[in-house]
Amino acid sequence: MSIPQQLPLGVSLRDDATFDNFYLSESDPNRQVVALLQSFASGQNPEAVIYIWGDAGSGVSHLLQSACQSAEANGRSFQYIPMAELMAMDPVVLLDGLEQLDLVCIDDLHLLEGQPEWQTAMFHLYNRVRDSGRQLLLGARKSPRGMDISLADLLSRLQWSLVFQLQPMNDRDKVAALRRRSRLRGFDLPEDVAQYILHRAPRDTRALFLLLEQLDRASLMAQRKITIPFVKQVLDI
């Protein structure tokens, strides 16, 4: 019998973190990875462990949360573990029993560096998940070979995983992604405004989308369209 999903206290999935909301251009090199993750999360792919990595803002966290949303939609039990938020917890207690779930998603795995207790707990979880026939999705900012992991057995297992690097968006795709995200939020972001934001704000997509949310809220409160003067006023850029 499937165990209901249960997120730790203080951890939640972003409503907009879905596969449909992950921007892909027609020639996007990430298309294959996203398609694989969709089948993996829905239980249609028998792969045991997938490891995706990329720079901050490349979409790793978005895709891990999307996998959890997809698992839930398909009636599968899951757990999302963002290590950046939960490092203060006892890893043995936190990871205990997760192998009973259909899908376990561990984010920010690069934070294992310099954390021997976490490395040991993760090693045992990896083995338990594989032995139980469940699935593990790992996300990090570094490749397994680029990780400074002192526990050799864990490092070798990470390197055995199916590993993919997310490729960053170019500027044209970032503008298109901003405009698409704005339409999903119910408003139109003119191209000149999107270009203005891109060239004056932090350039990683996570930061850009957060700025878009800020503009959306400010626009609704002020009952004003989002123009370059309005962006200057709200974001001070």
UniProtKB/TrEMBL annotation:
Pfam families: Bac_DnaA (PF00308), Hda_lid (PF22688). Residues 171-235 form the Hda lid domain. Residues 14-163 form the Chromosomal replication initiator protein DnaA ATPAse domain. Transmembrane segments: none annotated. InterPro entries: DnaA_dom, Hda, Hda_lid, P-loop_NTPase. Gene3D superfamilies: 1.10.8.60, P-loop containing nucleotide triphosphate hydrolases (3.40.50.300). This is DnaA regulatory inactivator Hda. The gene is hda.
